[in-house]
Write a structure and sequence with these properties.
The protein is an alpha/beta fold. The chain has a single domain (2-223), classed as TIM Barrel, CATH 3.20.20. Helix content is 38%, strand content 16%. It contains eight helices and eight strands. It has helices at residues 2-14, 42-54, 75-86, 104-119, 152-155, 177-180, 191-194, 201-223, and strands spanning 18-20, 31-38, 60-64, 90-95, 125-128, 147-148, 159-162, 185-189. Strands 1, 2, 3, 4, 5, 6, 7 and 8 form an eight-stranded parallel β-sheet that branches. α2 (42-54) packs parallel to α3 (75-86).
């Protein structure tokens, strides 16, 4: 599946598209923003970032500080984020608006400060996790002074395509008239959906679950191996 993703972005490049960061958007034509919302696993994001680097392609990775699926602040999480940044990609915050129903901007500023401090980077754009209807006023304005991936300039002024729910929500971008017309795109790509060996969603979830089990087994084996000492009283 990862090879299929690389074929997708290489097709854009061969058609004359320029992969850019959000801050580099200047034209309604010929530019490609690759956005990765990391919802489930940091290692999948790392493998995708490495494959992109090998093809000379740059993209932006957004990580959750509040995920139930991975711990961004553990040693491995910090390592992955920093190494993806070192590859030449952008790393930033994937923000769960729903956790701060009373004051989302205050919550955002706190998370940005923590992300920047731990990862040693500067946040200039964020991605919103499952934005609710209440976010509509922010489609035209900054959020706590920060640009976000759902601003009109990124989803209306250019072409927006998402792979959410394991399918192209508005059709395969390579088969679109806008691609033929060389219009600029933002592609939302979730690393999980392109990093397994099966096509169906439940199969992807099953492979993710197996990986998490192996990760836990490896961690316990490394840090909680039975003591080889003698004369110790068991529990």
């Amino acid at each position: 599946m990862l090879n299929r993703y690389i074929e997708l972005v290489v097709s854009f490049r061969e058609a004359g598209y320029e992969p850019i960061f959000f801050s580099e958007l200047e034209s309604p034509n010929g530019q490609l923003i690759l956005r990765h919302d990391v919802d489930f696993d940091c290692d999948f994001a790392y493998a995708m970032a490495k494959a992109e680097k090998e093809e000379g392609i740059k993209s932006t990775y957004f990580f959750l500080l509040t995920s139930s699926n991975y711990n961004l602040l553990c040693p491995r999480g910090i390592e992955v984020v920093r190494e993806i940044g070192d590859m030449g990609h952008k790393v930033s915050l994937h923000f769960d608006y729903s956790l701060y129903p009373n004051n989302c901007e205050e919550g955002l500023l706190k998370e940005i400060k923590l992300f920047e401090t731990i990862m040693g980077t500067t946040v200039d754009v964020i991605s919103l996790h499952r934005p609710p209807p209440g976010l509509e006023p922010y489609r035209h304005t900054l959020l706590a002074g920060y640009e976000h991936s759902y601003l009109d300039k990124f989803v209306k002024d250019i072409i927006y395509r998402s792979d959410s729910n394991n399918c192209w929500q508005s059709g395969n971008p390579l088969k679109s008239e806008q691609f033929e017309q060389h219009k600029s795109f933002q592609l939302l790509i979730h690393p999980l959906l392109w990093s397994t060996t099966v096509d169906d969603m439940m199969g992807k979830v099953h492979q993710l679950t197996l990986k998490k089990q192996l990760d836990m087994f490896s961690y316990v084996r490394k840090y909680c191996s039975p003591s080889k000492g003698k004369g110790k009283e068991p529990l």
